[in-house]
Amino acid sequence: MRAVTIQQFGDPAGMVVADVPEPSAGPGQVVIATEAIGVGGVDAVIRRGTLGGFGFTAGLIPGSEVAGRVISAGPDVDPSWRGRRVWAFTGTSGGYTEQAVARIGDVVALPDGITSIDAVALGSAGPVARLALAHGRFAPGESVLVRGAAGSIGIAAVEIAARGGAATVAVTTSSPERGERLRELGATEVLDRSGQGGSTTYDVIVDVAGGDALPDFVDRLAPNGRLVLVGVVAGMPPADFGARLLAGFRQSRSVATFSLDSVPVPVRDAARAETFAAAARGEQHAVVHDVLPLAEAAEAHRLMDAGAVFGRIVLTP
Asked: What CA dihedral angle connects 6, 12, 16 and 22, to 10 degrees?
């Protein structure tokens, strides 16, 4: 069985295709013959070594979400899962492979009309965006800025905020062409990467990027504004970014992190079900930049490092 492994963290060249043993399903697990594999921002962050302190080691199979058919199930799993089309979360690793293992609690049966490719473009991104906006207490009539809006989480946040009645949906992006595509998805203001242009302040900022510029966006919060950090694709924020909060003490601004790991399972599953239902209704869109063979995973990461991806790259075995 083929899989992509990280033999050296840093450059995408450290990712190689390797033969690995076929997995077996343990208690509470299923094995999925993958049809589509999502290439996410967290995969790139792990591969770059940004999260090296979290214990990732050489030989890791990256990837956190797959879609395909269940081919085997653990002894305590309902056998009716076998043969079903599913989306699955594999954790922080284990997705870039022809057969992936997932806990049954992280497996969702796919509704008719949702392809495997669409599923991995939406399955993680949709719930993160939906629940991050809720974490930021977004309410209709408020202004929203999505920083790093060209990725799958950012695109989902734009659509959800627009349909949720935001007075303004601003985005940061790298080019006018991307800005126009985001306008088609619901954006009303297009800013450059540094945040120039658009309104002066925003009630809610969903930040996918992090990095050195995060304090500048703390300054863009309105009084009582909330910034929700959902990713660090531009690197870790400076350690002293909280000084900007203190400098604007009288504005009562706040900064929070958000991870699906903190969400109760029923809430998470409901958000994912609503994501797939919204896609089936045509209210949320799976934006796929390209579909590449599994063996070209390194090329997918090169494109991500170059900032050339709009939406999500999907791998197929």
From this structure: 50
Spatial distance between the Cα atoms of 41 and 94, rounded to a whole number of angstroms: 15
Residue given tokens 């659509």 in the structure block: 159
Beta bridge partners of 314: 38, 291
Query: Cα separation of 102 and 87, whole Å?
Result: 10
| Tens-place pLDDT, residues 74-84 | 999 999 999 99
- The token pair at 204 is 């809610």
Instruction: Give the largest Cα separation in the chain, rounded.
Output: 59
- Per the CB < 8 A criterion, the answer to whether 95 and 47 are in contact is no
pLDDT tens digit sequence for 158-181: 999 999 999 999 999 988 899 999
Helix axes 152-163, 125-135, angle to 10 degrees: 50
Residue 308 backbone dihedrals phi, psi, to 5 degrees = -100, 5
Enumerate the H helices of 239-287 as residue ranges.
242-247, 265-280
What letters, b where the CB count within 10 A reaches 16 and e where it falls short, cover 209-220?
A: bbbebbbebbeb
Sorted by sequence, the CB contacts under 8 Å of residue 307 that are 6+ apart come out as 174
- pTM across the whole model: 0.91
Structure tokens at 108: 């969702």
